[in-house]
Amino acid sequence: LEAKELWEQFHKRGTEMVITKSGRRMFPPFKVRCTGLDKKAKYILLMDIVAADDCRYKFHNSRWMVAGKADPEMPKRMYIHPDSPATGEQWMSKVVTFHKLKLTNNISDKHGFTILNSMHKYQPRFHIVRANDILKLPYSTFRTYVFPETEFIAVTAYQNDKVRRLR
Predict the structure, then answer these.
(1) Which of 68, 118, 133, 152 has the highest count of CB atoms within 10 angstroms of its CB?
(2) Fold of 2-163
(3) Three-class secondary structure of residue 70 per DSSP
(4) What is the pLDDT of residues 68-84, one digit of tens each?
(5) Residue 137 pLDDT class (50, 70, 90 cuts)
(6) What are the T-box domain coordinates in residue numbering (predicted)?
């Protein structure tokens, strides 16, 4: 995970990600550096964002607290990195950034954005799939990486001043 220190600073304060109807990019941005891939093999890099628990939250007395059961989740969308598929050598030669991934609360989104519920906690997951073709994705070998410090609560506006100031 690139900018791990920044993610950790946000995590300490309780990371909030703003989601909008029109879609909003993540901040801090999700960036990774890949190592140990087969230089000649092709890989598809993906990201998805899953519910971290089954709770709904509220910001009360300057802190997040459980406010009941989670709303039903929207069908999860995988975000395929636009450079996929590429060789291990290509992926390892640069920082891989997921800056085009956008978060929305629009349940009828037609842009392929990741649909999230406001006031719910989420965990981004990063997947490396050894495959030279998107159609082979379901049958391919993959590894999933979870960085606990990237967990966040989806909000339509920042609730926590400490997070707003850090941003």
Answers:
(1) 152
(2) Immunoglobulin-like (2.60.40)
(3) coil
(4) 999 988 878 899 999 99
(5) confident
(6) 1-167
